[in-house]
């Protein structure tokens, strides 16, 4: 009787330890990419791309123009299918996770995804509402103010400059609490002050235990998490 | 779910109101095309009454077609469509919201204008005028729904506007037949109820089923 109990206890502890290990490995590695391949038309842009990314880590994609950085980011979001390879989020392929994955993903592409007819404030509130996030007007105004758009909140985006539009798009990041940020050239069209501000936002996100994947041609220091920045070179 | 659809409708309506020229031009197109017929055919009341259902319905189809290419094109160009596709809700529901908003700014005004234009065709004497309005109210949502599939399939294609008409207009034929048939039946005193019921069925099917293939087509366009 005692023996059986002990056996059971041993099995239990082993199981729980295995479970904890699995859990632990998920915490260490939330995003896992293996053997990713991208084919555009007849050309193979890259093949065999793989990396693992855990909480608090940043992956900076490097590579010349046309090496497939944006394609890789779009694959990470599930917008384009990969020719081969797998993308796993917390141990499960992103295709299977579907909406659960998208709930933890924040993507900022080449395009700003803001409407020229709407004001920055309306843009921010509308995009939050469509993404099923609770964002009140005060928070939105605060985000715009942080990105230096304090006096422009009621001006249609059509009248804003390219850099200011980029700032409107990036102001989303101020209150963004999703785990994975995928940013395509976030610093394009920004002035040095704004670049520093955005780098600070990314740093704070990493400190909270978030993940970020971004492409950039500018060497930007993300101070808070300098140790966790990893690089991947394509092409 | 309803909250999401409402959010899409509110956003699209606000965008449409900031860009009124699009709505107004489609409406004027409808008015002018319909008004050209009495001028071209001549003022014979019996002939006009016979022509009225077909002319008004065909003009409504063409006016709806005018605004269709822009249904997703703007969102596609400025990257909003990517964000919608990445939203943690089914894309089909978002498309449903966009279809409803499209109907509110294109189909509904056509239906409300139709009684005024019907006067030019001597429809005032009987209840054909009200059947015409009713048939347009019932049928135009189906036009928006079916059109959304075509708009999504031709997204990002050069010369997509013409292709869109070739793709979508044949699919509008059932709606046209039952819509114009309802007015015809009312004019000949047969009663329009059968036609209107079929039209309502078409609309329900169109609005319910169309968003899902549209969402699939949008995902392909985004790849």
Descriptive overview:
The complex is a heterodimer of chains A (235) and B (223). Chain A is of the alpha/beta class. Chain A is built from 8 helices and 9 strands. Chain A has helices at residues 2-28, 69-77, 94-97, 99-102, 120-130, 137-146, 162-170, 192-207, and strands at 31-40, 43-53, 58-62, 84-89, 92-93, 105-108, 180-184, 211-215, 229-233. In chain A, strands 6-7-8-3-9 form a 5-stranded parallel beta sheet, sandwiched between helices. Chain A has a 4-stranded antiparallel beta sheet with strand order 2-1-4-5. In chain A, strand 4 and strand 5 form a beta hairpin. The longest helix of chain A is centred in the N-terminal third of the chain and has 27 residues, at 2-28. Chain A starts with a helix and ends with a strand. Mean pLDDT of chain A is 84; it is low at 1-6 and 8-26. With 223 residues, chain B is an all-alpha fold. Helix content of chain B is 82%, strand content 0%. Chain B is built from 11 helices and no strands. Chain B has helices at residues 2-18, 20-41, 45-67, 70-77, 80-85, 91-118, 128-153, 160-168, 173-187, 193-209, 211-222. In chain B, helix 3 runs parallel beside helix 7. The A-B interface holds A 77-81, 99-100, 102-103, 105, 107, 109-118, 122, 126-127, 129-132, 156 and B 4, 7-8, 11, 14-15, 18-19, 74, 77-80, 82-90, 94, 222-223.
